[in-house]
Amino acid sequence: MNKKEKLIFWQQRMSRFFNHSGLYYLLIVAVILLLSTSVIFSFVEGVGFWDAMWWAIETTTTVGYGDIYPHTVLGRIVAVILMFLGIGIIGVLTSTITNWYRASKAHFEKLESIETEIKELREQLSEHEETKQLLQNLVSELRKNKNNDTKKDETD
C-alpha cells in the first residue's frame, strides 16, 4: 500500500470506529461534562478556568493529585457528580474500545477463513480443469479413432 491508500484505510477505519461504536457521542458528552464542571468549579471555588479544567480531568480519570480540591459544599457536590459521571464515561470508553477491538479481530478471522475457502475452491477448480482437459483429450482421441475406423470401413 502506498501512503495515500494507507491514509484512506486508516481514515475509513477511524470513521467506522467513531461513528458505528457511538464513541463520537461519548466524546461530545465527555467534553461537555468537563467544560461545564470546569466553569462551575472555577466560579464556585474562585480558581482560574484552566486550573478548574485540570481539576476536572484529574477527577474524571480518578487520578486526584490533591493539588486542587473543592472547599465549598457546592464544589464538593460538583465533584461527586463529576466522579460518578467520569467513572461511567471512562468505563463506557474502555468497553467501547474493547468491543471494537474484538469485532475487528473477529472480522479479520472471518476474512482469513474466507481466504482459506477461496484457496480450497481454486484448488478444486484446478483439479476440475485438469479433468476437463483429460476428457477433451479423450474425446479428441475417440474422434480420431472413429474417423480412422470410418476410413478403414470405406477402404474395405
UniProtKB/TrEMBL annotation:
Residue stretches in coiled coil: 104-148
Limits of the Potassium channel domain: 29-101
Listed GO MF terms: voltage-gated potassium channel activity
Pfam families xrefs: Ion_trans_2 (PF07885)
GO process terms (BP): action potential
Record membrane topology: Multi-pass membrane protein
Origin superkingdom: Bacteria
Cellular component aspect of the GO annotation: voltage-gated potassium channel complex
Subcellular location: Membrane
Transmembrane parts of this sequence: 21-44, 77-101
Keywords: Coiled coil, Ion channel, Ion transport, Membrane, Transmembrane, Transmembrane helix, Transport
Main location (coarse class): membrane
Keyword Transmembrane: yes
Protein name: Potassium channel protein
Species name: Periweissella cryptocerci
